[in-house]
Design goal:
Helix content is 47%, strand content 18%. It is an alpha/beta fold. It has a seven-stranded mixed beta sheet. Strands 2-1-3-4-5 form a five-stranded parallel beta sheet, with helices on both faces. Strands 11-12 form a two-stranded antiparallel ribbon.
């Protein structure tokens, strides 16, 4: 009888110890793809900040968070090699896509087919989301068509220009942007009088700008694709300002290069009044979150010498999104995290992510920005529910 009681006592002790045991260690590893030398200046710092906060917030939970960079050095071939290696590496929880849209299209196909979590933080061809049923590929950006529609609304509501030309590359993304812009509201007298090619504008500038002026073009929207660097595009804007100072100019995030612009006062002058749309949505209607961001920017400036840009915030939010979904749902499985995010979305810091059935980002409002003479940007929010 005593032996049985002693055995029962051991069972109780063992059960108690099991319930008090530390949680199983789980590592959430995030692989960041892309050309490291050409990341946006504060992009990796945003990821690093999120990783630090996640490790502090969930210390003792059994979760640890880390990231690694897969540097493709701007090569599609190296990018596809990274995709194959990451697809085989089951220790990786999530992969964050590159800037290169062709690499991302391949990655979306590979990771979608193998049920791996793939987050696309940059612009990507609309067809990737229109023609698939991937459950684990999630976009944090709006479609190219939506970006074009947003600049169409800006042209109609902001500028006063009536006669517009569209300058574009012949790649798929630029064509989708153009189709969105061509849906512009023409009831107030706006006309699309010309479509031109960005390569022609670049290579035979004097002839092309004179032709546009002879057509009476008052506004020019540019969707230049990936043929030219942002520095080359800023120089193009400067040339247009000299040749046609009254022409309203607009474009997509290909023209987003604050580091180059702020280093040259003449470029700041040329870009003043330029209207730009970027591929992700930012919410600024939550006063507490806006104050949090402003305080973080001041702290960042004290440490690094300048305030962070919105790519820092974007990188921070997407990393926190992965980590929060993992820890709060007790899983380091990328496919499971994808299903959770697909269903619930994510409420980030001045950014909310909502996904449709194909993983594309859904938004009810969009912003465009008018660049100011001090190098800052004035934000305009418009309702785009259609």
């Amino acid at each position: 009888m005593k032996k049985k009681v002693f055995s029962l006592f051991l069972v109780i002790i063992l059960a108690f110890c099991t319930s008090c045991a530390k949680p199983e260690n789980k590592t959430v590893k995030i692989a960041v793809m892309g050309d490291k030398d050409n990341f946006y200046p504060d992009y990796l710092k945003g990821i690093e900040k999120a990783i630090d906060e996640l490790n502090q917030e969930y210390a003792g939970s059994g979760f640890t968070f880390e990231y690694t960079v897969c540097d493709d050095k701007g090569s599609y071939e190296l990018g596809t090699e990274d995709i194959a290696e990451l697809d085989d590496d089951k220790s990786v929880t999530a992969v964050i896509g590159a800037v290169d849209m062709d690499i991302n299209r391949t990655a979306a196909h590979v990771f979608g087919e193998s049920n791996r979590l793939f987050i696309v933080p940059h612009a990507l061809y609309d067809s990737v989301y229109e023609n698939n049923n991937y459950e684990t590929v999630l976009s944090l950006t709006v479609t190219a068509k939506k970006m074009g529609q947003t600049l169409g609304a800006a042209a109609s509501n902001e500028t006063g220009a009536k006669r517009w030309a569209v300058c574009t590359d012949d790649d798929e993304f630029s064509m989708s942007e153009m189709r969105g812009f061509l849906e512009i509201d023409k009831t107030n007298g706006i006309k699309i009088v010309d479509c031109c090619d960005i390569v022609t504008l670049m290579s035979d500038f004097d002839k092309e700008i004179n032709r546009l002026q002879n057509l009476g073009v008052e506004g020019l929207v540019m969707f230049p694709g990936e043929t030219y660097s942002s520095a080359e595009l800023l120089s193009l804007v400067q040339k247009i300002r000299w040749a046609a100072p009254g022409m309203v100019l607009m474009g997509d995030s290909s023209f987003d290069d604050s580091a180059t612009m702020l280093a040259d006062p003449s470029l700041i002058e040329a870009m003043t009044g330029f209207i730009i749309v970027i591929e992700f949505q930012k919410q600024s209607d939550n006063a507490a979150e806006v104050q949090d961001v402003n305080e973080r920017r001041e702290a960042f400036a004290a440490e690094h010498g300048s305030k962070f840009d919105y790519w820092y915030l974007h990188a921070y939010n997407m990393t926190k999104m992965i980590g929060d979904a993992a820890a709060q749902n007790n899983t380091a499985d990328g496919a499971e995290i994808a299903r959770i995010l697909h269903k619930n979305g994510y409420d980030g810091l001045c950014q909310n992510y909502v996904f449709d059935k194909n993983g594309s980002q859904q938004v009810s409002v969009m912003q465009y920005y008018i660049l100011q003479s001090d190098g800052s940007a004035r934000e305009i929010t418009i309702d785009q529910r259609r």
